[in-house]
Design a protein that fits this description.
The protein is about 70% helix and about 0% strand. The protein is an all-alpha fold. The protein folds into 2 domains: about 1-60, no CATH class; about 65-104.
């Protein structure tokens, strides 16, 4: 979150680095710290004022974001489970059909 209104260019630079770091698996507080440091290293000296970067803070859970990866894995497992279930259902149905024909 931001504590005060931030200017566009510094916000864009900081957030781009922040989200890339999150995607790479960093904890939220570490990703924000690295984004701020990167901004300070690369920004024009006149743009390094704390008003441009100190507004951003992490609020709440600071753990790395891994739910998207876990969610994708969960969908994959659900899909595979359903696929195996359908294959078993079709195989049992065919077996039942074949046993009916043999009895007749």
């Amino acid at each position: 979150m931001s504590l005060w209104r931030a200017t566009d260019q510094p916000t864009a630079e900081i957030m781009a680095t922040f989200f890339k770091s999150l995607k790479d698996g960093q904890a939220k507080h570490q990703a924000l710290r690295n984004a701020k440091l990167s901004y300070l290293q690369n920004a024009d000296p006149l743009q390094r004022h704390p008003a441009n970067w100190a507004t951003f803070v992490v609020l709440g859970n600071t753990n790395p974001i891994s739910d998207s990866v876990n969610l994708a894995n969960q969908f994959t497992l659900i899909f595979l489970g359903l696929l195996i279930g359908v294959i078993i259902f079709v195989a049992l149905r065919r077996k039942k059909k074949n046993s009916i024909y043999k009895e007749a």
